[in-house]
Amino acid sequence: MISFAWQNRLENQAEERRALGRARSIQPASGLDFCSNDYLGLRSDPRLAEAAAAAARAFGAGAGAARLLRGDSPLHQELEATLAQWKGTEACLLFNTGFQTNATLLPALLGRGDAVFSDALNHASLVDGCRLARAGGTHVGIYRHGDIGDLDEQLSAWRTEAPAGAVALVATDAVFSMDGDAADLPALVEICDRHGALLLIDEAHATGLLGSDGAGLAQHQGVHGRVALVMGTLGKGIGAFGAFVCCPEALREHLLNTARGFIFSTALPPPVVGAALAGIRIARAEPWRRERALALAGRLRQALGQPDQPSAIVPVPVGADAEAVRIAQTLQDRGFDVRAVRPPTVPVGSARLRITTGAHLADAPVEDLILALAECLPHAGDNT
Q: CB 3.0–4.6 Å: which of 162, 242, 246, 359 could bond 41 by disulfide?
């Protein structure tokens, strides 16, 4: 039982969410998928299911323990070696989720007197990682979204007062999950080199989708192997589950000993690891998948009058929370699974539809969605 006071508080907060148009509920999948992160269409690929089944038969349905106890397997080691080679780093460490990874990384790497500088539109997991690092005495600087000059000024100002031996880390999404735009990694690599800072990039929405063999935005922008910390996930483009950090061997050893989210979590289940290995192999061997996902997103942006971006995420600005929900429901009623994104996921007043494309989609449904958007949104069809 919960107390009367708690019950009142919960009811009041729920009523406030409903009044603002921000009440959330879990909606089952229905209609054509225009909202998941299954960019390469691998989630339902039978080859991943077969690899998962083979791994379950060989190593069991669950890991049974954390990696440091008895949860390791040859599959975990193979996946880490595969990811390190793919991302162009010395080593790799697996985690269970992207949120866990980012929330764990920063407090494990930084301490009192150190600093982290985070893009203003970074994912919530990096935001929470910064908060945890701040609790340990780390300076946290938030630089304007994509503003290299602002970052440079903040790094310079911090350096003048930083204690001897203090380290700085710059954290950024590679592809930003709500806007679909990309960080300028060459500029960030240069500024981090100049200031002696580590660079952490979150390639959750770039892994499998960008680069000559799908390795991500660093490969796409020509800085492959030059980023100290490359974080990514296996449940989006790769179609499985899990997360990872690719990094120098010394950083892996440090994380293995200090990252609480790794130390105190049961390891990824072997079937998930087997599926992820299969997903990576397919992603690298079948470039048509990323080419198709990006081409369909480009077609949507063209119809909406938006500039092209290196991602399969197409935001449709609406503004008012309730209006975004209404339009999303209208599209769902017509068979398009499009979802509304509202605060606190995005800033107040910037509610939107977050549309995604994937290799599993045919041309006709995309054209049908464009027509439906033209009916729901003013000026949406002006560029069709």
A: 359
CB 331 within 8 A of CB 376: yes
Options 236, 265, 350, 360, the catalytic residue: 236
| Residue 313 domain flag | yes
Q: What is the pLDDT of residues 57-87, one digit of tens each?
A: 999 999 999 999 999 999 999 999 999 999 9
> Please, which residues bridge with residue 355 across strands?
314
- pLDDT tens readout for residues 153-199: 999 999 999 999 999 999 999 999 999 999 999 999 999 999 999 99
Q: CB within 8 A of 175, min separation 6: which ones?
A: 181, 182, 183, 203, 204, 205, 206, 209, 210, 217, 310, 311, 313
Set 205, 220, 224, 360: catalytic member: 205
Beta-strand pair 198-202/139-143: unpaired
Q: Assess if residue 39 is contained within a domain.
A: no
Whether the predicted model's global pTM rises above the 0.90 cut = yes
Among candidate residues 73, 118, 125, 177, the one labeled active-site is: 177
Distance CA 44, CA 71 (A): 26
Same domain, residue pair 86 and 143 = yes
Residue 298 and residue 168 share a domain: no
Determine the structural domain holding residue 303 and report its residue range: 287-376
Helix (H) or strand (E) holding 374, with range, is helix 363-376
Question: What is the CATH number for 304?
Answer: 3.90.1150.10
What CATH number did the domain enclosing 105 receive?
3.40.640.10
* Residue 236 among the catalytic residues: yes
Q: Is 254 a catalytic residue?
A: no
* 231: enclosing H helix or E strand: strand 229-233
Among 234, 258, 284, the domain-final residue is 284
Q: 220 an active-site residue?
A: no
